[in-house]
Amino acid sequence: MEGRQAYMNAVYVTEALAITSMGPDLESLYNGLMDQKSGISKITRFNTSCSTSPFAGVIHGLDHTKRASLIFQLADMLIEQLGAIEKDSFLITASTKAGIDLLEKNTTQSGMLPKNLLLSDLTEYIALKIKLNDKGININAACASSTIAVAKGASLIRMGIVDSVLICCMDTVTQFVFSGFSALGAMSDEPARPFDKNRKGLTLGEGAAAIMLMSEEKARACGKAPLGRITGWGIANDATHLTAPAKDGYGLKLAIEKACKKAGLFPHDIHAINTHGTGTKYNDSMEINVMHSLFNPNQVMANSIKGAIGHTLGAAGGIEIALCINMLKKGMMPGTFGFLDPEKGTEKIISPFARPLKGDCILTTNSGFGGINAAIILQKV
User: Fold this and answer.
1) What is the mean pLDDT of residues 273-289?
2) CB neighbour burial string for 234-265, b if at least 16 within 10 angstroms, e if fewer
3) How many whole angstroms separate alpha carbon 37 and alpha carbon 283?
4) Which of 171, 165, 132 is nearest to 151 (CA)?
5) Is 214 helix (H, G, I), strand (E, B) or coil?
6) Residues 328-380 pLDDT 10s
7) Are 11 and 224 within 8 A, CB to CB?
């Protein structure tokens, strides 16, 4: 009986923070989106003359002239917002490239790799900074990294392995990453326009988020009022292509179906979706196919925030989960910035304007290179 009870532990979100190009906190992001503002601007951090785009969603206050990686400055900004953290909390970080900008700052050196370059260095830095008992782990799963990190944390709590998990996710705009996406031909020469008929590709962005998960018993003992509940999660892979998603969205559909089953829901029970919505031809078409195959287009509403803050890579899922918590709390879904001319099949689903949220739960999904897909279902408390 004890094992069964532990396995059924409810998973609550007791902290949700975000830093984006829209502002230094979650309220700045939510209010900016509601006001149809954009955090995307021309980059001055490095030369973009050889790239397909000069645009990105960069955070004001990060000093690229310092020798240290921008990722640690961003980590410090996030940690400053965190309150007291239980020392036995399990830490999961999520980042795709961590301190990769150190390669740029050390190009004149040879031999050993720069200190603090590795993903594990970021995890250790945060653990030591907030004095946790354990150094934790990093999840690196392309653009679904932080969504999977939250799923992992929720699973650990539900199974009774731990009773509190802190997820810290972040990525920065670096010349290394910018050049890679430019060479791939995935970036738009203008700010991204998710689900728009004339979309040309994605816009990169940077950001960070912190999500604290607790069991009901732990939250009560710590005096933490739940902000929301994670009821379902699912992960799946297309196994189709190195970078492009499966056109029919098979992997994303499977991830969503897994999340629904865990939450005790059917897809038609879900009326609100925060999509991955990068603004690329293939990704958005795939998501449109999934929305039509799993959901009723006359009942479901969806949005994307990447037209306003850019694609924040490994931080995207965490930022969007934090935002979804705020959506559930305030009962409104922000519109999709850059959505001007609807792609076929989106007319009834996507809107550039904010709308009252339907239902008491929201599905948020992310997809990444390698065909990876992750889905989280959040419920209002």
Assistant:
1) 97
2) bbbbbeeeeebbbeebbbbbbbbbbbbebbeb
3) 24
4) 165
5) strand
6) 999 999 999 999 999 999 999 999 999 999 899 999 999 999 999 999 999 99
7) no
**The residue type at 330:** K
Instruction: Read off the tokens for 173.
Output: 């705009």
Q: How many residues does the chain have?
A: 381
**Tokens, residue 125:** 């830095």
Tell me if 214 sits within 8 A of 157, measured CB to CB: yes
Round to whole Å and give the CA distance between 272 and 293: 15
DSSP code of residue 333: E
pLDDT band of residue 83 (cuts 50, 70, 90) is confident
Residue 250 CA to residue 241 CA, distance in Å, equals: 12
Q: CA-to-CA distance for 23 and 207, rounded, in angstroms?
A: 10
DSSP state of 225: P
Residue pair 90/162 in contact (Cβ under 8 Å)? The answer is yes
The amino acid occupying position 334 is P
Please check whether residue 22 is in contact with residue 16, taking contact to mean a CB–CB distance below 8 angstroms.
Answer: no
In angstroms, rounded to a whole number, what is the distance separating the alpha carbons of residues 197 and 339? 9
Rounded distance between C-alpha atoms, residue 289 and residue 283, angstroms: 10
Distance between CA atoms of residues 301 and 340, nearest Å: 16
Q: Judging by DSSP bridges, how do beta strands 137-139 and 90-94 pair with one another?
A: parallel
